[in-house]
Automatic annotation (TrEMBL):
It comes from Calorimonas adulescens. Its EC number is 2.7.13.3. One of its GO terms (molecular function) is phosphorelay sensor kinase activity. The modification Phosphohistidine is found at H46. This is Chemotaxis protein CheA. The keyword tRNA processing does not apply. CDD domains: CheA_reg, HATPase_CheA-like, HPT. Keywords: ATP-binding, Chemotaxis, Kinase, Nucleotide-binding, Phosphoprotein, Transferase, Two-component regulatory system.
Amino acid sequence: MDLNQYLEIFVEESKEHIEDLNTLLLEIEKNPTDRELIDNIFRAAHTLKGMAATMGFTKMGDLTHKMEDVLSEVRADKLKVSPDLIDVLLKCSDVLALLLNNIEISGSEGDADISSLFDTLEKYLSVYNTLKENREVLTESVNTEVFNEYDRDIMKKAFNGGFKCYHIEVFISKDCVLKSARAYVVFNILEKIGDIFKSIPSVEDIEDEKFENQFTVFLISKASKEDILEKINSIAEIEKCIVEEINQESINAIPNLQDNLNTVKEDVEDGNKSKKIVASRTIRVDTDRLDKLMNLVSELIIIKTRLLKIQTSIQDTELNTTIEYLDRITTNLNDAVMKVRMVPIERVFNRFPRMVRDLSKELNKEIELKLSGEDTEVDRTVIDEISEPLVHLIRNAIDHGIEAPEVRIKKGKPSKGTVYLRAFHDGNNVVIEVEDDGEGINFQNIKKKAIEKGLISSSDADNLTDNEMINYLFMPGFSTSEKVTDISGRGVGLDVVKNKIESLGGFVDVISNSGKGTIFSIKLPLTLAIIQALLVNLKNEIYAIPLNSIKEIVTIERNDIKFIQNKEVMIFRGEVVQLIRLGELLGVPEYSLPQKELTVVITKRGEKYSGILVDSLIGQQEIVIKSLGKYLSGIKSIAGATILGDGDVALIIDTNFLIN
């Protein structure tokens, strides 16, 4: 059987399982006793092992198999979840991701060496096995000897009185002639430091030497484990002694064990039922096929627009009815296809808890990442592109924003800093915010660096507003950091963020409060394929302005135009708004403004407005965004093009650039 045909599915599903593994490991670090989390981690490793083995990827199979061995001991409460163990398991996850990446690129796992990681996992097992040898008999006796109600009452009272309960296993030398005498000495010593409430075999059988060379006692005492061991080991002909403290929770949990098992069983059955329902309602579809479907819908909408244009010249009732029906169908089809392309942003957000954890350790800072709105759905294209800008913003927040713990304490802040990552819908846009409660942006440093780099004179710098100073942060090579680190300080980051967001048709706003923190707010259109737009005329040419960026359309007189610093402005609802002569900006031939009334399209970007002067308005229309291609990709004021109903091409105005 040719397994290569399943390679793509294997890679996609393995990526999801590795992401789940990362998320679950970070959660279990916070809740090390959460049984469900441990089971889910084991299940993810087990599934990866099975999938890798089926596809013949031995390194992935062996590594997940060893992880499974370690996790089995955790599930059996024989190994405790510790930060060190989480570190090792996260490294395993990293290596699995590396192997998977190699498989995706070349079809093979590559020559990555997993032996050191394999050995580390083996050490965890060998440490456990050593303990296991010593505890084997002890564990067996605990499992076979079920405490009765009377025993549990005794232990509960002892715990309430501040005593400890011990399980003591005593091995007498095989050469010992009088085993019962040695046992008597042991009992005698233990009675001096506590109360023996049970023994295996019974006291009578021990006195009659009805045992081999080992017996068990249960002791209530305030003595420490070390004291007990020291006293028993001091007795002659005692070969070995094992002392274990009995856990109070385990005693309390015993009566409910069966109930818990029944509950788990019911949950599993319910889970299986719901899984079956979900599985029967979802299928995995190649994203290329979705893109093709989207293109076909786009073409259908262009044809519909053409028919609507024809409809205006041919007044035919039957044609009108048919076009109206077609209009309704294409709109519903477009909505349905768009919903199929929508993906929860959780897929991106889930990558960051691990990154924040690693950076916190690297920088010796205490940082908590709080996520919200993970179920906010965005276009699949945004999912693919938004990760890089968010990485830069979160790294900046941790490195530049959040102060060191001792500094925060001096400022009266909690030692642990917080980074918030939020997503939510705002009309036809999706907003993603990265906020930190750090020291905020140091505007004086920005001013100083801008002067040092010759970007502005000292006198002009004094007139800069906070927003104007923030714009310098988005310039390539501009950094206020005095020290270059592996994380930041090279002036690479925010310019990448700005370029990427603008290429997606969005923009970034920054709000910073000195000493309180900074918010980077990214606003993106919900869809990047089909939008509602306002068509406008400039001379004989038609342009499209995205409707979601339009605040209002107003008409003004020429006399209403004022000048500030040689720039044309108007007063809009009490605010000064810069006017943009779109015809001049785009170089429209023989363009000149009308003599009297001027039509102004007020566009917005966050809290900023600008007024675009146009000749006349055509109307609102659903348009399909087409890329200009690589040869025209550098035109800043144009976001793309669309095909109109008569087959002509109209350029789409990039209003975000104009407001800049």
